[in-house]
Amino acid sequence: MIFTKHGGNMKKANKFKYKRVRIYWQDPTSNPEWMTLKKALEENYSWCDDIGYLLFKDQRRVIIFASHSFDEDGELTVGNITVYPRGCVKKIEVLK
Questions:
Q1: CA distance linking residue 5 with residue 80, whole number of Å
Q2: Which residues does residue 55 pair with via DSSP β-bridges, in sequence order?
Q3: 25 CB burial (10 A radius; 0-12, 13-18, 19+)
Q4: Which residue, among 58, 43, 66, has the nearest Cα to 89 in the 3D structure?
Q5: C-alpha to C-alpha distance for 2 and 68, rounded to whole angstroms
Q6: C-alpha distances in Å from residue 57, one per residue of 14, 35, 36, 92
Q7: pLDDT at 35
Q8: Model confidence band, residue 1 (pLDDT cutoffs 50, 70, 90)
Q9: Of 9, 32, 39, 76, which has the highest C-beta tally within 10 A?
Q10: Which residues pair with 68 in a beta bridge?
């Protein structure tokens, strides 16, 4: 059960229903230096991962948030939002 404190009063917040996840995704890289074609073909993308709460996913995008709070009315507010193009996301792992 989550409680919020505003001005000294504790209020029961709405139930938190979002799953904590780790998103594994691929990030494009770039390199501004001059190089041979052979070296250019050796360049690669980066594997990345982020942890947050899964807000939304469909065939086009995945949205997570890392921070949350409940306002005075018990409504959930979120921050640190990240939106991923679905094609970049390779795995979504639900964390405990």
A1: 22
A2: none
A3: buried
A4: 58
A5: 12
A6: 22, 39, 40, 10
A7: 97
A8: very low
A9: 76
A10: 78
DSSP for the chain reads --EEEETTEEEEPPP--PPEEEEEEEE-----S---HHHHHT---EEEEEEEEEEEE-SSEEEEEEEEEE-TTS-EEEEEEEEEEGGGEEEEEE--
Which carries the bigger pLDDT value, residue 64 or residue 73? 64
Residue indicated by tokens 């939106």 = 83
Task: Give dist(CA 91, CA 47) in Å, integer.
Answer: 11
Share of the chain above pLDDT 90, in %: 76
**How far is Cα 31 from Cα 54, in angstroms, rounded to an integer?**
32
Tokens of 86: 């679905």
Q: What is the mean pLDDT of residues 53-67?
A: 98
Q: Which of 80, 57, 54, 55 is nearest to 67 (CA)?
A: 80
